[in-house]
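USER:
Make up one protein:

ASSISTANT:
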Amino acid sequence: MEGAVRNEGPLVAGVDSSTQATKVVVVDPGTGTVVATGRAGHEVHGTGGARETDPEIWWTALAEAFAATGRASEVAAIAVGGQQHGLVVLDAAGRPVRPAMLWNDTRAAADAAALVDDRGAAWWADATGSVPVASFTVAKWAWLRRTEPAVAARTAAVRLPHDFLTERLTGAGVTDRGDASGTAWFDPAAGRYRADVLGLPGVELDEALLPAVAAPDACAGEVTSSAASALGLRAGIPVGCGTGDNMAAALALGARSGQPVISLGTSGTAYVTSRTPARDATGTVAGFADAAGGFLPLAATLNCTLAVDWFATLLSLDREDVAPPGEVVVLPYLDGERTPNLPGASGLVLGLRHDTPPPAILQAAYDGAAVSLLAAFAAIGGAGGEVDATAPVIVIGGGARGQAWRRTLARLSGRAIAAPEAAELVALGAAAQAAALLTDAGPAEVARTWQLGGAVTEPPGEADLGRVAQIEAALAAGAPLLRRA
């Protein structure tokens, strides 16, 4: 708890219900200043591709996180951001029928492939903006119907993780278009569920079981007396519609259309806020909606900070111990890759010599991962998303604190790099939704007044296009070997 910061006016709360923990920030809505925080962990279970959590744990964790803030009774509005794609199935009483399948549960891979084969990747991209993979909710529902038909038959409501918490707060089944766009049964361009997807033989889901899709600035309802008692909140305060985690983070940044953002986590994501929708039949770009009425085309790489840290450990180096790479090239696809699309690949190291110093190999690992992330913006532009070719790249996530990551991205792109100081951007994006309920401004306007986008930490320069070409040539030469892996 940040008890040293006091505020005499109303406060708002933003929630981030992630895979591993629930985090709450209590915020001054006028300035975006965080006055208190709380956190409580989750349990994730499963082997052999399964990743599940009992949704009741999320509710218990939310209560613990609010208690840790010490300021719950002062909150005047609240909204929830949450992990995308998960499948929560409820009975008629609103209780979970089974544990939630999380976004990183891969058991539905075959079901996703069958759905794509049924209609074709181009049809899916046109209908929903995305080509389903195992993480998408539509594939998880198809898996549930196929493997647990009795559970599917008992299901009276289908929700996403953030929807579940919003419904517990208000008693109303409400979602937003941003999180709904990660299901692959929602059309982000038209703003509606797709009856033709819901009616597919592998899906057969009644739209009545899905939550209503609210506008970005809408109130989902008010905190019920029972929820208020459980969380220490005041009954009757408004609850925002909430959104998915990537959408909430983008909202908190106040990013303008075309502004490139890279999130450096275990995996990496590259996205922009866009006034135009994206559709990519290759599946590289997911054509999501954002939390402000626009779109959030996003591409993911599997190998990001975890892959680079693995090389640092292998070489007995600190992650900042880098040196010019010279001729050595690392394609750090330790777990396969999505950008480029090489799901069976393993890593390659090329150009080694007796006198190659270990720090050069580590820098080459940074370069290989960074080129994949930067290439994602070209894919987003090719799919129809807006990409500003000159704007600074906002870098967030755990890797953004590393100077080596920031300098690598600046060198290879030629762009300025901005790194926000604010932590918990997902929760802060939800807090902006909550704050908008107390004003005439929309959530994006509120977030922009908070100015959380961060200062430039690396100035623009001349892009090292020769190094990019060197890595791309190594990828082309090594592709046959990578595809055989």
